[in-house]
Design the sequence.
């Protein structure tokens, strides 16, 4: 029997709703989508889904191991234990999310979710593998309490799908649902940097925990989305690692163990705000924030479409793709994601990535089509590109950035 991973179709559903939201926002004359922001959001999501193909199984084994060896109880799947488990997962989620905002080492993973200055369905894709791993550590308490791993992963799906629908400005208030569910309105507050909205509405499905623990605020003034200090960059790597670098710098400068402990487990507000600027001077020099030309946009869109198509196939046919080909797909997509970020910032080193990507394709061809003609033409192609490297590089820059220097 054909063994397909149907999760792949959630990618299609996801794109469908983004398209729908885009059309609605255009129709109503409100533009909720900026090109660079949306592309950056999608790219973060592509990386997470991609690495998730490998990690999801690990989480299951981790839960299963804990359940079989250390469970203090054996809970049977009955309707009331499902309800209990749902309440438990949502409660743990609240605390995980709250601590992710209050503890530096956890914020380093969660900050990525909050960098976008837009608020639309593409923002829901801003999850990283580090975040998923941190969350699973919190959920590890459930198998210990006796919930079977099968039940837990089923609920993970609910917590994976529900939050998608609350990342939108196209839905207003939802009447009576506002009292007990986390609605788009509640989550808009959570993504805002307005003073009164900071560190509020952490809930995932139920808003009751926020009301219980005093972190609930109603949406009653227009939201300003994003971090309190905006990121100024769409670089794929910078978005993922800037806060880790800030922490490392603060840690190095801290005097004594108490101060160091505070860097890791203290509050994000206590990290010296100057550090970000100093790191930007080192890592983000020569960043151009000019709007992209039509050609650049097409180039980026084609690249993103190819990454998404590859991700779809890799997920759907997970059981059939040999390890070597998987390694190729992962490397290819990761290179493309860094590449897209670099083009958004008009970086010159983007050509080196293009070169690496070309060689990766050539190498993969050689491995999977070991024929003499393939070998000769790949070798000839690689040789020519390497020989004319600087000439091609110049032409590429002229073509993509319209720079004549
Ligand atoms: Zn958050
Ligand atoms: Zn969110």
Sequence:
């Amino acid at each position: 029997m054909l063994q397909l991973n149907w999760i792949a179709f959630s990618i299609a559903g996801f794109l469908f709703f983004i398209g729908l939201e885009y059309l609605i926002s255009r129709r109503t004359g409100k533009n909720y989508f900026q090109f660079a922001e949306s592309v950056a959001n999608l790219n973060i999501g592509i990386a997470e889904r991609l690495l998730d193909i490998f990690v999801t199984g690990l989480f299951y084994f981790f839960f299963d191991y804990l359940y079989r060896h250390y469970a203090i109880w054996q809970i049977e799947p009955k309707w009331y234990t499902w309800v209990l488990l749902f309440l438990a997962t949502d409660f743990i989620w609240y605390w995980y999310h709250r601590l992710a905002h209050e503890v530096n080492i956890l914020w380093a993973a969660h900050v990525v979710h909050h960098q976008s200055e837009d608020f639309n369905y593409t923002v829901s894709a801003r999850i990283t593998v580090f975040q998923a791993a941190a969350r699973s550590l919190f959920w590890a308490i459930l198998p210990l309490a006796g919930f079977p791993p099968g039940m837990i992963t089923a609920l993970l799906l609910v917590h994976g799908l529900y939050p998608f629908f609350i990342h939108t400005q196209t839905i207003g208030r939802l009447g009576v649902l506002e009292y007990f569910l986390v609605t788009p309105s509640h989550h808009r507050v959570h993504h805002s940097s307005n003073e009164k909205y900071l560190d509020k509405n952490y809930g995932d499905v139920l808003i009751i925990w926020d009301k219980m623990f005093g972190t609930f605020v109603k949406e009653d003034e227009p939201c300003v989305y994003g971090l309190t200090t905006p990121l100024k960059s769409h670089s794929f790597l910078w978005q993922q690692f800037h806060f880790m670098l800030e922490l490392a710098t603060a840690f190095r400068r801290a005097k004594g163990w108490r101060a160091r402990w505070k860097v890791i487990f203290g509050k994000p507000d206590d990290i010296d705000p100057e550090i970000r600027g100093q790191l930007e001077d080192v890592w983000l020099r020569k960043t151009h924030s000019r709007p992209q030309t039509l050609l650049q946009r097409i180039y980026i869109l084609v690249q993103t479409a190819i990454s998404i198509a590859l991700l779809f196939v890799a997920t759907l046919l997970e059981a059939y793709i040999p390890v070597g080909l998987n390694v190729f797909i992962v490397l290819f997509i990761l290179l493309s994601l860094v590449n897209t970020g670099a083009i958004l910032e008009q970086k010159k080193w983007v050509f080196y990535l293009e070169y690496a990507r070309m060689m990766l394709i050539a190498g993969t061809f050689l491995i999977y089509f070991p024929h003499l003609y393939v070998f000769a033409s790949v070798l000839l192609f690689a040789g020519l590109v390497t020989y004319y490297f600087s000439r091609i590089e110049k032409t590429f820059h002229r073509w993509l950035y319209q720079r004549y220097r």
In short: The pocket of zinc ion (ligand 2) is lined by residues 113, 167, 187, 191 (CB under 6 Å). The chain has three domains: 8-213, 236-283, 294-401. The chain has a mean pLDDT of 91.
